[in-house]
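Query structure, 111 tokens:
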């Protein structure tokens, strides 16, 4: 098994890309995310900790979309090719992806 992380800059095209990935039969956990730089710049007051309360006050939609796929080894390249195709190799939709081996996996959820 492998985990594949995908980060896309939020846009209507990014959401359409996720729809296409789903239409091709793949599933992932999807989270809205902010970069640390953006989050700190949004709250210029001095603070030593960044908490969820800071996010609750945010008026903008999230800066990025974070997707976590858990895939059989044989499917990773297929998902990557789908992402490359719909993002035009990250030229049309800004972002990045990387994958890592999962050394110890157990559970009832499958792709």
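Result returned for the query:
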């Amino acid at each position: 098994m492998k985990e594949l992380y995908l980060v896309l800059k939020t846009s209507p095209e990014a959401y359409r890309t996720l729809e296409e990935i789903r239409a091709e039969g793949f599933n992932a956990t999807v989270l809205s995310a902010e970069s640390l730089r953006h989050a700190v710049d949004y709250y210029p007051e001095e603070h030593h900790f960044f908490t969820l309360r800071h996010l609750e006050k945010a008026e903008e939609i999230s800066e990025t979309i974070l997707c976590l796929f858990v895939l059989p080894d044989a499917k990773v390249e297929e998902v990557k090719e789908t992402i490359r195709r719909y993002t035009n190799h990250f030229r049309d939709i800004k972002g990045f992806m990387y994958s890592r081996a999962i050394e110890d996996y157990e559970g009832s959820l499958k792709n």
